[in-house]
Amino acid sequence: MDKFEAIKKKILHRLRTELPKNLYYHCLAHTEDVLQAAISISEKEKVTDDELFLIKVAALFHDTGFLKLHRGHEQHSCEVARETLPGFGFNHNEIEQVCDMIMATKLPQNPHNKLAEILCDADLDYLGRDDFFTIGDTLFAEMKDYGFLKDEKEWNRLQLKFLENHSFFTPTSINTRNAKKLEHLEKIKQIVASYDKEGN
């Protein structure tokens, strides 16, 4: 088993067995989805093999902070990375590159380099995909369960504001995801406009 596969096995096992069961969105499937999106974007962005390795590791760790808490999980994800990665032979510089990518995904996203841009776009790849509403339903259920939202109207208003302010960073995601994201935005605008007609 190579180094990445060993890390992947360890982290996915922890997510599978230790994450709270009411993380309907920030679950094992989300991390696997972000990993695949990160690989796909990286290949199109022509990163080096060493850069791809670090991006894949960051994708695996980016939501491990949810093992500890919900709000501010990015900082805790970095703590998990700093605790775990030395055991796999990572040096200080490599670990800090991983943590820089993870911290860039904190909303509003703020990447400072190409690798962080790739992880940020992978983390929100679903915004420009056909499964947007299906995945969105899991995030709504999670936020409602944690008391961050009270109803669907509040959720759709939040989604509207979020999509209006969101931008993809990499040329790959702009070219492959932006048009579909704008379609979703228009649908949500219509939904929210219907609330205003009802006076709600």
What does this molecule look like?
The chain is mostly helical. Helices cover 69% and strands 0% of the residues. It has 9 helices and no strands. Helix 1 packs parallel to helix 3 (49-61) and helix 2 (28-45) packs across helix 6 (114-123). The longest helix is centred in the last third of the chain and has 28 residues, at 171-198. The protein starts with a helix and ends with a helix. The model has no long low-confidence stretch (mean pLDDT 96).
What descriptors fit this protein?
9 helices, mainly alpha, globular
Brief summary:
Helices cover about 70% and strands about 0% of the residues. The protein has about 200 residues and is mainly α.
Global structural class = mainly alpha
Q: Separation of termini? A: 57 Å
Q: What is Rg? A: 17 Å
Instruction: Work out the helicity level.
Output: 55-70%
The helix/strand series, from N terminus to C terminus, equals: HHHHHHHHH
| Uncertain residue segments | none
Largest sheet, strands/sense/barrel: none
The outline comes out as: globular
Number of strands: 0
The helix count comes to: 9
Mean pLDDT: 96
Strand content: under 5%
Write the layout of secondary structure elements.
Blueprint: H1 3-18, H2 28-45, H3 49-61, H4 73-84, H5 92-104, H6 114-123, H7 132-145, H8 152-165, H9 171-198
